[in-house]
Structure formats: structure tokens, C-alpha cells
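[agent] plan:
  1. take the single chain provided in the ticket
  2. run structure prediction with default settings
  3. attach C-alpha cells to the ticket
  4. add a short note for the reviewer (M.T.)
[agent] executing step 1
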Amino acid sequence: MDNLIYDSNLNKQFDFFDDEEETERDRDNLINMYPAKARLIMVLVEDACDRLEYEGSPMFAELPDKENIRITADRIYNKIKCRDNDETLRQLIEIMLCNEFYARRCRYRRRRRFF
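[agent] step 2 finished; step 3 output follows
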């Protein structure tokens, strides 16, 4: 019999990191399939979320504030707007922002279980 000690909790952590990496790769591949304008928006969305990714951030609040999402989306919209008052583009940005919030909140919750 081997003298190795099996730590099931440690093994779960390694499985978690493998799953996390696979999920991130899959997500990145799908984002790369976005149309060019949507990829540009996604870069700006990710940048905005990077700035909000800290402990106690409104992004991780139990119920994210809709007004905060709208303000962040407006900042992104103002950087890329092509026409005056393109409401469809503004809504697309809000959807992408909410989706990115969701992805990061899921990742945050999964990691919190292990650490």
C-alpha cells in the first residue's frame, strides 16, 4: 500500500480548477464568435467589470442595483455610439453587462466555497 495520504477536499479543489479552466476556455471561444461590434462592446464590458471586481462591490451584492447597471451601460454606450439614441445598442450593452455580471458572480460563488 502506498504511503500517500489522500485528501478528498484537496482533490475537489483540483477538480474545481480544471472545470473552471475548461468553462473559461469554452466561454472565450463563444465570445470570439460574436460579431465584430459585439466583440468591441464585450471588451468594454469586461473592462468595466474588471473595475467592479472587488470585495464588497455592487456587482456581488445579493440583488445588483439596476440603476448601477444602467449607469455602467451608459458609460460604455457613450464610448461607442454611432448614431444618436440607438436604443437597441444601449439595450444590447445592458444585456451583455448583466451576462458578464452573472458569469463573474457564479465564478465568485464557486471560488468562495473552497477558500
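[agent] step 4 note for reviewer: Residues 13-19+36-114 form one domain.
[agent] ticket updated
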